[in-house]
Amino acid sequence: MAAGAPRIFVSHLAGIAVFDPNGDQVGRVRDLVAMLRVGRRPPRLLGLVVELATRRLIFLPMTRVTGIESGQVVTTGVLNVRRFEQRPTERLVLGELLDRRVTLAETGEEVTVLDIAIQQLPARREWEIDRVFVRKGGKKGAFRRNKGETLTVEWSAVSGFSLEEHGQGAENLLATFEQLRPADLANVLHHLSAKRRAEVAAALDDDRLADVLEELPEDDQIEILGKLQEERAADVLEAMDPDDAADLLSELPEEDKERLLSLMQPGDAADMRRLMAYEERTAGGLMTTEPVVLRPDATVADALARVRNPDLSPALAAQVYVCRPPDETPTGKYLGTVHFQRLLRDPPYTLVGSILDDDLQPLDPDAALPVVAGFFAAYDMVAAPVVDESGSLLGVVTVDDVLDHMLPDDWRETEFHLDEGATADGS
Questions:
Q1: Residue 139: its pLDDT value, please?
Q2: Keywords on this record (predicted)?
Q3: Same domain, yes or no, for 23 and 152?
Q4: pLDDT for 310 beyond 90
Q5: How far is CA 316 from CA 60, 152, 210, 340, in A?
Q6: Is 89 inside any structural domain?
Q7: pLDDT confidence of 189, banded at 50, 70, 90?
Q8: What's the rounded Cα separation, in Å, for the pair 93 and 13?
Q9: Cα–Cα dist 104/108, whole Å
Q10: 359 and 247 both lie in a single domain
Q11: In 41-149, which ranges are E strands?
Q12: How far apart are the C-alpha atoms of 102 and 33, rounded to whole Å?
């Protein structure tokens, strides 16, 4: 944990107000949602259960929480009002973990959980359960609750929470999946039965499922999306990279596609429609609409802060794109690119507008896949800007999307193994 990072006990969060960035109250915290992990690894805190003024309970991901302080929660203002539904791998912290009888690993003594502390991981937006506040002594109950010594211990110092200790085989399997990279989990899902594949997909959170869908063959993507409730399917599409989501949407019947687009946030739906207007195997069809865009008066320090975002892929974090306002694609006039290595060489106060690489011509949105691939090979690029005839930045093509479309359609069916001593010809 980062030094000085706040540790918050969950009992202090029950019932506190949730505000949007403008200071308007949107609801109150009713519980916290955590995902247990195999063994004694600290659970990851997924989000909050928030009760709106209408009494509806919704899920607020921790990625949309910008602050927890002074008896209030502040959000990004983007709320999904779909009714909260608990998934098999999720546990309600207030409702299911407090008052539980657990065992101190060192002494074998049974204790009662009175409270649980959470803390944010350093340099990341993820939160974990950090400590457990317990009371020694008799079993829980109205006449015994105030008896016995209390102490705060690490999560790993107690047993009785983990999935395998409760014989929950299916959940244990899902928790094991959490340790896999999205491409590896996609390979596992592909080889499961359709029934089990749907069960696992239903249990994954939206961001995780989005990452996995991007790595699955098209048929599996369509099958999984079709078994989700429509509102959740729209949420998952919003969490996917825009180019991958647009590719998936374009494979659906027109009626289904329009229904899902109508359920998405207007900005996300507009991105999808814009991407689907291009042929699939062109720069416009390959690009993502979410590059790092800065104005020319931004500094190197600003640029480095943006590329540190852990949600960015390595290819998107490799360079920033300098444009006139507006900053969202399609932007104002595209001025040039600043590569990550250049950002590391210049003082933090340097303006990005003064260190542009503007020698390379950007890609035209109608450039065919062979032209795009040739551009990447000729200039050793990992990402390239796509600019329209008016000079606006439309998006960015990354090398992984180029490879994805150049490999055979069934390349995801192949299992890749890197063996020591293997030669280029496989011998």
A1: 56
A2: CBS domain
A3: yes
A4: no
A5: 27, 42, 18, 10
A6: yes
A7: confident
A8: 11
A9: 5
A10: no
A11: 44-51, 57-61, 65-69, 72-75, 90-92, 101-104, 110-120, 127-136
A12: 19
CATH number at residue 325: 3.10.580.10
169 in a structural domain = no
**Which DSSP letter does residue 209 get?**
H
Asked whether 335 and 353 are in contact (CB, 8 A), the reply is yes
CA nearest 329: which of 293, 281, 282, 280? 293
Domain presence at residue 110 = yes
User: Do 301 and 259 reside in the same domain of the chain?
Assistant: no
Q: What is the dihedral of CA 182, 232, 229, 184, to 10 degrees?
A: 0
In this structure, is the dihedral angle defined by the CA atoms of residues 384, 389, 391 and 395, taken in order, positive or negative?
negative
Q: What is the secondary structure of 397-424 as a DSSP string?
A: EEHHHHHHHHS-TTGGGSPP---TT--T
| Cβ-contact 257, 230 below 8 angstroms | no
Query: What are the C-alpha distances in Å from 190 to residues 115, 297, 305?
Result: 40, 47, 37
Instruction: Give dist(CA 214, CA 346) in Å, integer.
Output: 36
Collapsed DSSP state (helix, strand, coil) of residue 213:
helix
Which of residues 351 and 162 earns the better pLDDT score? 351
The Cα 206–Cα 240 span in angstroms is 9
- CA 398 – CA 286 distance, rounded (Å): 8
Q: What is the domain range of residue 317?
A: 293-406
For residue 318, being part of any structural domain is answered with: yes
Place of tokens 């608990």: 86
- Residue 119 · residue 140 · CB < 8 Å: no
Which pair of structure tokens corresponds to residue 5?
């990072």
Share of the chain above pLDDT 90, in %: 52
Tokens 């600003």 -> residue: 302
With b meaning 16 or more CB within 10 Å and e meaning fewer, what string describes 131-151?
bbbbbebeeeeeeeeeeeeee
What is the count of structural domains for the chain? 3
Return the residue matching tokens 């931004």: 298
Question: Residue 330: is the preceding peptide bond cis (ω within 30°)?
Answer: yes
Determine the pLDDT at residue 38: 65
